[in-house]
Amino acid sequence: MRFTCVHQGYELYGSDRSFVETVRVIRAAWPQAVIDVVLPRHGPIVAALEPLATRILVEPLWILRRRDLPGLLTVGLLRLPLALGRALVRIARSDLVYVNTTVVADYLLAARLFRRRCVVHVHEIPEGVVRRVLRMLLGWSGCARIYNSQATRRAFAGEAAAGRVVYNGIADPGSPKGTTYRGDRPLRLLMLGRISRIKGQDVLVEAVARLPDDLRGRIAVRIVGSAFEDAERERALAARVAEPDLRDCVTLLPFAPDPSEHFRWADLVAVPSCLPESLGRVAIEAMAHGIPPVVSEIGGLPEVVADGRTGWLVPPGDAAALSRRLADLVRRPEDWAGFPEAARARYLAVFAERASAEGMIACFRSVLERRAGRLPAEPRTE
User: Fold this and answer.
1) What is the side-by-side order of every strand in the sheet holding 293-296?
2) Where is each Glycosyl transferase family domain found (predicted)?
């Protein structure tokens, strides 16, 4: 068996870690398979993939990103034939090709000639023109589809769309630390993610700034992440946090490949996304650690959090509403004392690795079995 797994990233943020986990599922289910991983460049993800992949290939990919579209549609078109040629060769040599996004255009264009052996994992909710382009590209490819949430499936083709919804599985971090916040120390609030307009770091900072002075002294905020090709936004955030009303309660820290230390520190996790998250991996990771998340009511995040039981939903982009919620949480810790246990239980029931692995394997098997006369050996699921 030969698998080719294609990913558009090279860091270790949420989508990157999800890709690593999918490669781990393939390796566990088909331990003797040849697994080629294709990345656009070297980065932190390589070390995580090395124990799982047979080969890691760094090759130029024709990736559709909004900021790159002017270049792709002009000079970039000269590179497209070569990119298509590489993709066709890789697909032709593979029993199954797994593409971890809809934005790798060269592989989706090439897949039309080999649609019986390709799977696209849809885990983005684009908007406007980008959504229309990606819908057309996905339809053209004819690939089997895995959606990471109901919200993602609705965004691309509605409830009746072909394909499976398989929630991202998150590795169990082990026994949660349990509730330690009783109101006798500052509430520890964590935010993880790339610094971008989508993630809402500025909304969280403004929400904290709106807290009354006495409450602002009872909260400690840790924002962990770095900008993705947007250094000016990162500088602006650092300048705001350095102002007198925030510098004593908000700390900025750089991207961390392993965020476990930050989860062990936190009492709550904030996911104040301003644009739709396809699911919300950080919120799931928080619940796996037994940490209730405060998330925006947008995209797939409402599928993750049971509002008022395992965490809280707030309107996206509404710093005032988020500030009010934070004030309530600081003032009345007894009201949410049972949330950490409930969050952990929801993670185990819905988002643990086994359920995700079973869904992914079922999809891969159905694609492999459609190859005329070629039935793979029964994969292992333990």
Assistant:
1) 250-253, 219-224, 187-192, 268-271, 293-296, 312-314
2) 186-344
Judgement on whether residues 160 and 60 belong to the same structural domain of the protein: yes
Task: Tell me which amino acid residue 92 is.
Answer: A
Assess whether 158 and 200 both reside in one domain.
no
Work out the pLDDT band at 10, boundaries 50, 70, 90. Answer: very high
* Under 8 Å between Cβ of 144 and 363: yes
User: The domain spanning residue 269 has which CATH number?
Assistant: 3.40.50.2000
Token reading at 376: 């793979």
* CB contact at 8 A, 304 and 295: yes
Mean pLDDT of 29-51: 97
What gap in Å lies between CA 24 and CA 281, rounded to an integer? Answer: 17
3-state SS string for 93-145: CCCEEEECCCCEHHHHHHHHHHHHHEEEEECCCCCHHHHHHHHHHHHHHCCEE
Q: What is the pLDDT of residues 175-193, one digit of tens each?
A: 887 778 999 999 999 999 9
Q: Is residue 124 domain-shared with residue 252, that is, in the same domain?
A: no
Please name the residue ranges forming H helices in 158-277.
Answer: 201-210, 213-216, 231-241, 260-265
